[in-house]
Amino acid sequence: MRIVVKIGTSTLAHPTGHLNIRRVEELCKIISDIKNAGNQVIVVSSGAIGMGVGKLGLHHRPTDIPSKQAAAAVGQCELMYTYDMLFERYNHTVAQLLITGDDIENETRHENFCNTLNRLLELDALPILNENDTVATNEIVIGDNDTLAAIVAQSVQADLLVLLSDIDGLYSADPHNDPNATLIHHVSQLNEQIYALAGVSQSGQGTGGMVTKLHAARICMDCGCTMVIANGSHPECLYDILDGKQVGTIFQEGSTCSIC
Questions:
Q1: What is the DSSP string of the chain?
Q2: How far apart, in whole angstroms, are the C-alpha atoms of residue 174 and residue 129?
Q3: How far apart are CA 158 and CA 225, in angstroms?
Q4: Potential cystine with 44: which of 3, 6, 155, 250 (Cβ 3.0-4.6 Å)?
Q5: How far is residue 82's CA from residue 25's CA, in Å, rounded to a whole number?
Q6: How far is it, in rounded angstroms, from Cα 107 to Cα 158?
Q7: What are the Cα distances from residue 106, in Å, to 62, 131, 159?
């Protein structure tokens, strides 16, 4: 299988903002094992700005663009150093790709991006992607790594996209406010009822939370790629997903939908 795994910041870091070493080590071990089984794996990783904030000793995440980009520049080095060190333990070579929206929108640049990514997979490397936050501006941003991961899955004709986040999946209502909310295990079509469950992000810009995950699901389902939302606090769930066990919420046309 060709698998894209998106790792969110909440999966990589403690609430303090510092790296969750035990979890990241476990993730790299499991992803390495999945590769050893003959699968091709691409990682889309958040966390550069957060790691940069910690590395620079800032007291809070910056809000202005230059400071965010500076934090990303520092944090991306730390992030890739960590991945390189951990994956090397299992004899896997990592490759870094930093892209912007222009690399997706421009036909020539997108073709070059796809060619590079496919060649890395042929060479048995493990590509690790992130948006190039050090240079991205409002005009060229992709916006979020859920969308980036879906675009990558579409570009390389992946079989599966797994979004590892701090939530178990899509619920029938907000589980923080409704004790009767239930996890929806299967979604076979994205309709108004499903979109209504996502609500809007706190920022109102549609750049976080379930809104972006449903956008990613739309991209995947349109190209025949299965997508799963799962809780990244349990990295071993990747094994269960590949074994076909019920984990999180699966978005797949033709599945037995628990709400549609």
A1: -EEEEEE-HHHHB-TTSSB-HHHHHHHHHHHHHHHHTT-EEEEEE--HHHHHHHHHT-SS---SHHHHHHHHHHHHHHHHHHHHHHHHTTT--EEEEEE-HHHHHSHHHHHHHHHHHHHHHHTT-EEEEEE-TTT--TTT----HHHHHHHHHHHTT-SEEEEEESS-SEESS-TTT-TT--EE-EES---HHHHHHH---TTSSS-SHHHHHHHHHHHHHHTT-EEEEEETT-TTHHHHHHTT---SEEE-TTS--S--
A2: 31
A3: 6
A4: 6
A5: 9
A6: 20
A7: 30, 16, 25
- Per the DSSP assignment, residues forming a β-bridge with 76 are none
Q: Phi/psi at 126 (nearest 5 deg)?
A: -115, 100
Nearby residues of 177 by Cβ (< 8 Å), 6 or more positions away = none
CA dihedral over 90, 5, 231, 223, signed as positive or negative = negative
Q: Cα(170)–Cα(185) distance, rounded to whole angstroms?
A: 8
Rounded CA-CA distance 203/227 in Å is: 25
- What is the maximal distance between C-alpha atoms in the chain? 50
Rounded to whole angstroms, how far apart are CA atoms 48 and 140? 18
Alpha-carbon distance of 128 to 166, in angstroms, equals 20
Tokens 């066990």 belong to: 245
How far apart (Å, rounded) are the C-alpha atoms in residues 211 and 218?
11
Better-scored residue on pLDDT, 136 or 192: 192
pTM, whole model, 2 decimals? Answer: 0.87
